[in-house]
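Progress report, Aim 2. The chain analyzed during this reporting quarter is listed below.
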Amino acid sequence: MNDLQIVVVGAGHMGRRHAQKVMALADAGHPVKLIGVVDIVAQRAADLGKRLSVRHSENARELLAQADAAVVAVSTLGHYDVVKHALLAGCDVLVEKPMAATLAEGEELVEIAQRAGRILQVGHLEWFNNAMRSIRDQIRNPRFIEAHRRGPFSHRATDIDVVRDLMIHDIEILQRIVGAEPSRIESVGISVLSDKVDIANARLTFPNGCVANLTASRVSPTPMRRLRFFQGDGCFLI
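Predicted structure tokens for the chain:
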């Protein structure tokens, strides 16, 4: 079997991590090969490409034409264009969350992937966190879910609000645990240091009566990642 040829688009914080993971998989004997990295900042692409001894470019088109799969880790506002081109180039795609900047763009990308017969996967990784994996099969009928996700301010990901930057992790976990869309949503958010919402709170009520309270902040002096699930036979805390 030929190695899966992979391109990483975006050589920032997450792109570097993805590229290193692909290299680690290859070194461990998995049938994958990182063939190149792309970034609109030429020096950033060059630095990562040279460090990993792979090709580098400012333009994704040439490398995507030679790839079987792409990891897209550019800024959220660039997701739609890069993912669309990768899918139309015949690549399966893993894109960092959120899938796109708007619902309409996300829905169109899903349609393009379906028409092209390609895999489109969003990098919602918290579900596969070891702590989450250790308890998720024991959470069967939660009545109340509480999530706190906060950290200090940085200039990374300020092109989107804190809901799509941080709270999205807990929303994705809720969807998997409860298995339904909320029937009611009450929310509030404020801007503090950026022109987007930096602190948000949401209360979600589900058709089965489960209630979830989510808080996310990217302007907190102290980081916190906490999830609590309350059900009839106990409480789970991670």
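Residues 162-178 form the longest helix (17 residues). The CA atoms of residues 103 and 109 lie 10 Å apart. These observations will guide the mutagenesis work planned for the next reporting period.
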